[in-house]
Design brief:
One of its GO terms (cellular component) is cytoplasm. InterPro entries: JmjC_dom (IPR003347), JMJD6_ArgDemeth/LysHydrox (IPR050910). GO terms for molecular function: 2-oxoglutarate-dependent dioxygenase activity; sequence-specific DNA binding. With 241 residues, the protein is α+β, with helices and mostly antiparallel strands. The chain has one domain: Jelly Rolls (Sandwich), CATH 2.60.120. Helices cover 23% and strands 32% of the residues. The structure holds 2-oxoglutaric acid.
Length: 241
């Protein structure tokens, strides 16, 4: 039987944007940026308690992780209480709260770290997808192994709880690591990854395009109805990359 190679996900502290870009960013390797958002106001604004107090009446839809067609539509307050308490093996997971004008107040002082500059922010066009989400889940909720949308890269900042990440590279090497509150995980373009919530979690995540992955994203987009976006990104590459 083939033995599986498992390594610890690399982790760094206090890595500034330039050194990040010239290492993990350009090489396209996943990494945990320990404590990167520890002091952000978001850590307080998006805690279970603050969300319940400030946005408890907002309506949300959550789906089970395995039996995905089983959905509930609850208030955020009711969902937060459920997420903190349930021990179900296949719990409801809230993964679809995108940052739109209608939900912007939920995102508090959300900001994109300078490590992950997002060229999509330059477009004021309703056809350009919004790729910023708030994700909330109980213990046992999970995202199965997947590749990210449109071949983008992503960052994921954890507000509360513990997530276990698994990445797999093209050679079949597996990387695993635990993300704790204040940590940011970088997922580069083209890396299969899955996430398991070891306790109730709240995180923010954003998929992005910039000079580190614009080739992959435009190649992907030219085969979709978003061809016009590929052309616009090509133009940005000629100016900024
Ligand atoms: O936190 C999660 O469950 C999912 C994060 C992730 O992999 C994604 O958004 O692509």
């Amino acid at each position: 039987m083939e033995s599986e190679l498992i390594r610890a996900l690399p982790e760094v502290t206090d890595l500034q944007p330039e050194p990040f870009l010239s290492t993990y960013g350009r090489q396209g390797h996943p990494v945990i940026l320990r404590g990167m958002m520890r002091d952000w106001p978001l850590m307080r604004q998006l805690s279970f308690e603050s969300l319940r107090i400030s946005h408890g009446l907002h309506e949300v839809t959550a789906h089970r992780c395995v039996q995905r067609d089983d959905e509930v539509r609850w208030t955020l307050g009711a969902y937060l209480t459920y997420a903190e308490q349930t021990q179900e093996a296949d719990p409801y997971y809230l993964t679809n709260l995108a940052c739109t004008p209608a939900t912007a107040d939920l995102f508090g002082a959300y900001q994109t770290p300078p490590h992950f500059v997002n060229w999509l922010d330059a477009f004021d066009d309703p056809h350009v997808p919004v790729l910023k989400w708030l994700i909330i889940g109980p213990r046992n909720s999970f995202s199965p192994m997947h590749l990210d949308t449109m071949d983008t890269s992503a960052w994921n900042g954890l507000i509360a709880g513990i997530k276990r990440w698994t990445f797999r590279d093209a050679a079949g090497v597996t990387y695993v690591g635990e993300q704790r509150p204040g940590d940011v995980v970088f997922t580069p373009t083209g890396w299969w990854h899955g996430v398991e919530n070891l306790s109730p979690t709240v995180c923010v995540t954003e998929n992005f395009v910039n000079h580190t992955n614009v080739d992959a994203v435009t190649t992907f987009l030219t085969q979709t109805p978003l061809r016009h976006l590929a052309l616009a990104l090509e133009h940005m590459r000629s100016r900024y990359a």
